[in-house]
Each structure stands twice: as structure tokens, then as C-alpha cells.
Amino acid sequence: MDGHHHTAHSVFPKVSTTGKKGKDQKSAKSAKKPRKAEVNYLPPYPTGENEESQEQERIQLLTEAPTNPNSNLTRDVVIRCLIVYLEESLDHVLKRYDDADEDSVSQDLTVQRMKIYSIKTNTSDCPDDVGIVVEGMKVLAALGNFPRACSMLLGLTYAVNVANPKELRYTFEVFQKFLLELDCSKLSPKVNSLKNKTASLGKWALAK
Prior knowledge:
By secondary structure, this protein is of the alpha+beta class. It has one domain. It is 48% helix and 11% strand. The protein contains eight helices and four strands; from the N terminus they run ααααβαβββααα. The chain has helices spanning 2-7, 23-29, 51-67, 69-85, 102-109, 146-159, 169-179, 189-207; strands spanning 94-98, 114-120, 129-134, 137-140. The chain has a four-stranded mixed β-sheet with strand order 1-2-3-4, covered by helices on one side. Helix 5 links the parallel strand 1 (94-98) and strand 2 (114-120). The two termini are 36 Å apart.
């Protein structure tokens, strides 16, 4: 996600948010709104990061998964617990198909607005396919696991003009503003409370 996202910084000009009065203000009102699949907004790098450091982190994440499956399990549990803690539902982001026939899965995916899907047709613990569907169309497949699919889904919301699922507004706010430090100047009370509790827990752990 980070690699695709920040590569765009070198291709597209920075978005100016400074408003001006008079003719400039009038022009701003008449500016063309982005259509679906057009770049909508490219947020700044997190504090202390640049394109090179983000690319190194992206490579590390991609190479870590095959050699350390426990890391994926940990991330999976953390994300699921986060959603529950924020009083939101996993069903709003993940659609599981266990032992379902291909036709039924394909038909059901066409009515999904924006979901991560997990298809498993055998008795193994690992799904056959994990991907993302947007407006009834598969846009990404073979992502391997739920945590990676979450990161890709977050990248999609930034790369194209797709709004975050309103049923998961707090979960995506944590991803964007708390974990990635994108547009983190203003947090909702619920996410700000989580941030303060996390900071307090970190201080307690250091003091032990």
C-alpha cells in the first residue's frame, strides 16, 4: 500500500488547500470534482518519514509474511479486537464464504459495495482466495490474508474516489489518523480516547 501510495507523490503535484478571496475563490467553487478512479487526495508522509523510508518498510512487510506466519496471525487478531473495541462489526468489512459453490459466491459478490472477501472451499485453515470487491467487482485478488487485505483496502480509499464505509468510520480513522498519522490534526472523541489510553499504557510499560 505504502509503495503504491507514495510513488504517486512524485507523479502528481501537491494539492493546495490555501483558499483565496475574489476570483480565485470563485474558481475554486467551479473546479472539477474527481470522478471515480481518479486520484482524489494524496496526504503527506507520516512524521519523520520520506519516500525512501516508506519504500523500505513496504518491502519489509512484503518479505516478512511468508517467513513469519505468526505476525499475520497477530495482526489479524489485533484488527478484529480493534473493531470490537470500537463497537463496530467485522461483518461490515469481511465477507466469508466457507464451502460455498463458485456460482453462489460470484452472484453474492455482485451485490457487495466494498468488502474484503475470503473464500475457502477445502478443510485447510488457509482460505483459497482473499481479495477486495468494490461496487460488485473484484478489484484485487490473491492477497493471502486479512491484514494485508485491510492495508490494500485502505490504500484504495486514498487512491480512488471511494469513501470509507460509514459503518467502520472509527476503524478506518484509527488506520489513517492514529496508525499512519495521515491528517491526524483532529481526532474523534472515541479515537482520541484510544490514543490517550495507548500512550498511557506505553508509559506504564516503560516504567516497569
